[in-house]
Amino acid sequence: MKNTGLLFILLFGLLVQAFAQEDSTKNNVFGGFLIMPIEFPVINTKGLDQQLSKYGFPKANHATANVGIGLQLYMNRGITTFSYNQTTKKNDQSSFVTEVEYRSTSFNFGYSLTKSPWFSVYPYTGFKGVGLNYLYREKATDTTSFGNYLQSNLRYKEVTNSKAHLDLGIGISHQMFYLINFRFGYLLPLERVRWNINNNKTTLPNSPEVAYNYYFTLTLGLGNIARDNDVRRHYNRR
After folding, report:
1. Which of 14, 19, 83, 140 is deepest in the core (most CB within 10 A)?
2. What is the pTM of this model?
């Protein structure tokens, strides 16, 4: 896995260097967009689900699409993106309720292989922190009394984890006063999963592994992008 990550980084660096050397014309572009990324993560929760089923708890089914917010900045052919996604999938049954929260924080940099300010194809690399929060709460019956409720032994379980990754991928975007961006990213873990309780104050040993493999993202945004020459001509006419 580490060798694969080093290979991706090496190829990315060589690709950027090669296109940078061939780019003899200036491409003075600046733009910024407020974005709404919709992330579709592919997560292997087999180990976690086996542990949950063993003790009579429902599986950790997370939301397929996870909505977030962020910024995407264009400086010449460099593309910098920061985003945060968080969505909770709730399963409300008569005797219990589960909530599985997915969250991710991303910071990455890409290099456009095209010279057009309106259309970009770019490899990117960066950091992505990903996590799941699993909550199970058993419900009391609707006919219970106040005293019986206080004496009941209702089960309540909540565990959470987070994991840092090297984020490698490729994106395709079209931008003017709006942004439409598609991305595919592959995640290389930088640490093992650790499940925590008590507001992350206590780590549980022998925690089941969760693999955050890869993801797809559709990003929509509003903002603006302009070439330096166009801005100069605009102000000269005035």
Report:
1. 83
2. 0.81
